[in-house]
Amino acid sequence: MFYRLRTDFRLSIITLLGASAVLGITPFAVMRFVQNDLLAGLVDLFILLGIVSGVLYAWATGDTRRSGLVLAVIASGGSVAVGSVVGEAGLFWLYPCLVTTFFLVHPRVAIGLSVASVLALMMIETAFSSQIQMWSFATTAVVVSASAYVFAHRNHSQRRRLEHLATIDPLTGVKNRRSMDEELDLAAANAERSGLPYALVLLDIDHFKKINDLYGHGVGDDVLNDLVALVGSHTRWSDQLFRYGGEEFVLLLPGVDGVNLRAVMNNLQQVLRKHLKHPGGPVTASFGVALLGHGEGVGHWLDRADHALYRAKECGRDRIVYAEEADSPEPDLASSDPSCAPG
């Protein structure tokens, strides 16, 4: 429970605001029922039930966007209902509701709800004692909404930037392992649904430690960036490259198998052989390739590609090994490179 609150910002906001609303509204609901003000009491009760339902839905499904929108609508609509039923005393509820919506939904949506709430209250004559009070209320509500918008917009931009940084490798600019896990899960789900083939390539730069030891980590970093640039310029926009760790990368290839997959891999290997260099000469890479099997889990899929990469390294590096061959009792590794004997 506390882990989810620490790691899911929107869920923590929904929970905090939901708890605050329940603690703040419950005494008034009880008081109104005690005072026999049934209509106002029922309005408060429905608002409470809506807020509790929204919070429970967010916890049960993890769908914080939809539940946040529902809670924002309840907060805005509830404040209008309270203002129309209670009158002047109920107008004060709109201010916390205006601020709350900016934490629950996108700032543009919150602006729309805020404007709609203020206009709705202004159309209810019984909510205000005079025109001056109505326009004073509208002006202060606009100021509060504008301030909340500026804060929420900046917060939204900063959060998106942090989320972006959390999924990108800072050195090479490609997606990192965290992002890879999400994309592989999506690929496996899409393959089950559509039957589209997916190939997973585990790529490892040969003798990378020697490059770092002889020429320094700056040269090693240049090699990594050059590899990313070469792979990016010789693959499709739908292909995705991830930095798996160190000098290892994962390439996700949707929609290729059989002869087409071998053609893609042979071309990529030749491109790296020709263009990837360091001060001591050309740099090569080893490849482990695995096609996603029907009903196969992502972990097993990745393990098969890793085993194929291990076989490529074991057989002398600068080779492509396909998991379907490496996993067989007598893998036909010669089909990938004649110099690599089975075993």
From TrEMBL:
It holds the Pfam family GGDEF. It is an enzyme of class 2 (transferase). It catalyses: 2 GTP = 3',3'-c-di-GMP + 2 diphosphate. Keywords: Membrane, Transmembrane, Transmembrane helix. It comes from the Bacteria. Signal peptide: none annotated. Its EC number is 2.7.7.65. The chain crosses the membrane at residues 12-33, 39-60, 67-87, 93-122, 134-152. InterPro entries: Diguanylate_Cyclase, GGDEF_dom, Nucleotide_cyclase, Rev_trsase/Diguanyl_cyclase. Residues 196-325 form the GGDEF domain. This is diguanylate cyclase. It comes from Marinobacter daepoensis.
